[in-house]
Specification:
The protein is α/β, with parallel strands linked by helices and 178 residues long. The protein is built from three helices and nine strands. Bound molecules: 1-O-pyrophosphono-5-O-phosphono-alpha-D-ribofuranose.
Amino acid sequence: MSYRLGEVILSRETISRRVKEMAAEIANDNGRDKGIVVVGILTGAAFFLTDLVREMPEDMDVRVDFMSVASYGDNTTSSGVVRIFHDLKSSIEGKNVLVVEDIVDSGLTLSHLIELLNGRHPASLKVCVLLDKYERRKTEVNVDYCGFRIPDKFVVGYGLDCAGMWRHLKDIKYVIEE
Ligand code: PRP
């Protein structure tokens, strides 16, 4: 199977507009005086996260941390496991945490991750995703902020990859498999 880039599904302008809206909504909900720890899940979310936090007000207490995880489990195993490749640098106990993902698909990664992070006793835990492939959900996940709901099609760019490629695209595009 070979892959080539197809049409743009979300242009850089559309993404940028939505990212600004989301940052404003998060800042508004959180309150500027209350600190927020933005936790990016590597690798895909790094692209979205860096744009998102730069749209937050300068006087807001924003911290950034990253985690790299892989989720194991399928629809027959509800007690899924998250394997941590790279953990957070700082404790989130008593902190207001915002988990940032590029995409929620089956929901397994996020649901396992939420359970894991809740076990560390944050003051609050919210979830922000750029893309929601809602048709593929296998487990329920509570998403507080969602950029775009998209169809179950292969897409790349703005952090999303195809075998490691095309993360660096400014627009999000369809992939054509042939
Ligand atoms: C993607 C995405 C989520 C996960 C979502 O990561 O960033 O972590 O898949 O899928 P799920 O809802 O079915 O669990 P991926 O494993 O592709 O890693 P990457 O960010 O390094 O590309």
